[in-house]
Amino acid sequence: MVKKQRIIAVAAAAAMVLGAAGCVKPPVGSASAPALARTNLSELRAAIESGRVELAEALSEKLDDGEKASRAGRVLRGRVAELRGNGTEAKRLYVEVLREEPGHLEASLALGARLLDEGDVAGSLATTDAGLGAHENDASLLLNRAFAVLASDGFPRADDAFLAAERASGGAGVVRLSYASALARAGKGGEAVHVLVRLTGDAKATVGLLAEAGHELRQLGAFAAAFQAFEKVVLQRETGEIRVERALCKLGLREGDAALRELERGIEVEPNYAPLHFYRGGRLAELRRWVDAKVSFERYLQLAPNGPLAERAKKRLRLVTATIER
């Protein structure tokens, strides 16, 4: 048995990406289908999928009575309730829609994810399978099912479920990424690396998926493969964050000089991205360039005084300052 995972965000991302790829079809014969084209609902969906909680709440309040009562509207209102942390209200809305239209696609996706998040694996599987009865071979439902099988039975049974989702999606990268993450969390790092390397070699992989895959590969210690992924990313999206990732890959490969070059290039591109200065300070300290290291740690703390690396930066700044003063 592997640790149960939060998959609400995964399911939402999968539905968004797979839908954009044409793999998710709108509910056939659903009373909500005409409403999907309405501007308020479309804007609300976009706000939810981008995690913009305050905007989603405001747009939810703007819905007219017809939009609020529509099946699509109720599912979206349920997702807003989840963003607020009100799982009970969300579940009530999803169940209400499914009573009216068993197998409703979005309600099945949302309720299946909600139940799994609550630890009700059997309920999640039942909901998802009912949705698949109405929407056979739907990639998003199959991905939700794979996470439920993983929570219930672990690997290797979950392998078949994830592969079914991948086939149904036409090899969509978000499914491979989800599969690799699940493998990694189950302690199957080698298998996860194999799946991620396949993803980074896919000519259809988006820059966002390549960046996510590169990050996962780095976390798994596959530094060379991760750097190759970021080689592709930087050609399309050069940011401070990407340069930090590349630098950390180079540090993992024990190529300190190359790591420093990545960080300094990142500062040229995005001088106010704080982590660049933190990691540059660390590398300069290793080179005993104490004054330059001090400047870098100070710059990090100017940019992100309460950032996730702030305490480490303060500690290193004290050490570097003490070394300079000796």
Folded structure, characterized:
Among the domains are: 188-271, Serine Threonine Protein Phosphatase 5, Tetratricopeptide repeat; 274-326, no CATH class. The protein has 19 helices and no strands. By secondary structure, it is mostly helical.
Provide keyphrases for this structure:
single chain, 326 residues, mainly alpha, Serine Threonine Protein Phosphatase 5, Tetratricopeptide repeat, 19 helices, 74% helix, 0% strand, disordered N terminus
Compact description:
This protein has about 325 residues and is mostly helical. It is about 75% helix and about 0% strand.
Write the layout of secondary structure elements.
Blueprint lengths: L7 H13 L18 H11 L3 H10 L2 H5 L1 H13 L3 H14 L4 H13 L3 H14 L4 H15 L3 H12 L4 H13 L3 H12 L6 H13 L3 H14 L3 H13 L3 H14 L4 H13 L3 H14 L6 H16 L1
String of helices and strands: HHHHHHHHHHHHHHHHHHH
CATH superfamily of the domain at 188-271: Tetratricopeptide repeat domain
Per DSSP, the total helix count is 19
Indicate the proportion of strand residues: under 5%
Structural class: mainly alpha
Mean pLDDT: 87
Radius of gyration equals 23 Å
